[in-house]
Amino acid sequence: MTDRGDVRVPERDPGLQPERTRLAWRRTTLSCTVAAVLAARAALQEGTGAVAVVACALCLLLWLGFLGVAHRRMTDLAATNRPSRLPARAAATAALCTMALAVCATAMVF
Amino acid sequence: MSNFVQSLRLWFAPERIRDEGDTPDYRFSLANERTFLAWLRTALALIGGGFAVDQFLPDLRWGWRIGLALALLAAGVLSSLRAVNHWVRCERAMRRGEDLPVSRFPTVLSLAVAVVALAMVVVVLFGWEG
Fold first, then answer.
1. Mean pLDDT, range B48-58, rounded to an integer
2. Band of pLDDT at residue A85, cut at 50, 70 and 90
3. Is residue B4 assigned to a domain?
4. Which region holds residue A47: left if phi is over 0, alpha if psi is between -120 and 50, else beta?
5. For residue B63, is it within any domain?
6. In a domain, B3, yes or no
7. Residue B61 region, left (φ>0) first, then alpha (ψ -120 to 50), else beta?
8. Cys-Cys with B60: which of A12, A85, A100, B65 at CB 3.0–4.6 Å?
9. Where this protein primarily resides, as one coarse class (chain B) (predicted)?
10. Is the ipTM of this complex over 0.90?
C-alpha cells in the first residue's frame, strides 16, 4: 500500500504492478467462486444423499483452499512496495484446486 | 518431454529456481504471475462452462450433453496444467536471460473452443429432440 507522511516518499511504481496483481488475484477468486457455486449446485441437484453431501463438502474445501492461497498472496502483495515473486508452491496449489474441481465435475457428470 | 519432467520437478522444489541465474525485475515476475492467473481464470471459466452445460441443458440428448461437458472440463484441466507449467518455464527463462518459451497451446485451445462452439450450433439447430 502507500506510505503516509512526508518523511519517506514511497517509490511509487508507475505501473502499479502489485496493485494490478492483487486485483488479478481477486478476479481469479471470483471465477473460482462461480465455479464452486455451480459445483455445489450440481452436487445437491442429485439429491441430498451421503455422496452428494460429500461431493459438496469437497468442492467447498477446494474453494476454501484456493481462497486461502489467494488471501495469503494478496496480503504479501499489500505488505511491501517490492513484493517477492509468487512461491511455486502457491501456484501449484491454486492450479491443483482448479484441477480437482474439474475432476469432481467429471465424477458428477456421470 | 524431458523438458516437461524437468519443469514438473521445479513445481515441487521451488528453491531450485532460485539457484539459477539472476533475480529478474520484480515487475516482470508480477507480470508473469498475472499471466498465470489469467490462464487459471480461463481454466475456471471452462470448468464452469462444463458444469453449466451439464446442468442448464437437461433437454439435450445424453451423449451430446456428456460429450460437451467433458470436452470443456478436459480443456479446463489442460489449461490449469499449462498455467503452472508456463509460469515455471517463463520464470526460469527470465532468470537465465533466455527468450521466453513459445508454445502451440493457445492455438490448440482456440481450435478446441471453436469446435465446441460449432458443436453447440449443431446441437441447437438439430439435436434438441432427445
1. 87
2. confident
3. no
4. left
5. yes
6. no
7. beta
8. B65
9. membrane
10. no
Domain ranges of chain A: 17-109
The total number of structural domains in chain B stands at 1
Q: How far is B93 from chain A (nearest CA, A)?
A: 14
pLDDT in tens, B63-94: 888 888 999 999 999 999 999 999 999 988 99
Measured between beta carbons, the chain A residues lying within 8 angstroms of B7 are none
In a domain, B84, yes or no: yes
The contacts of residue A99 (CB under 8 Å, 6+ apart) are: B77, B80, B81
Half-sphere exposure for A55 (CA within 13 Å, toward CB): 25
Nearest CB partner across the interface for B30, out of A17, A38, A103: A17
What is the pLDDT, as a whole number, of residue A3? 47
- Nearest residue of chain A to residue B52 (CA atoms): A38
Test A86 with B34 for CB contact under 8 angstroms: no
Its domain, for residue B96, covers 24-126
Tell me the backbone φ, ψ of residue B120, rounded to 5 degrees: -60, -40
CB contact under 8 A, B69 and A109: yes
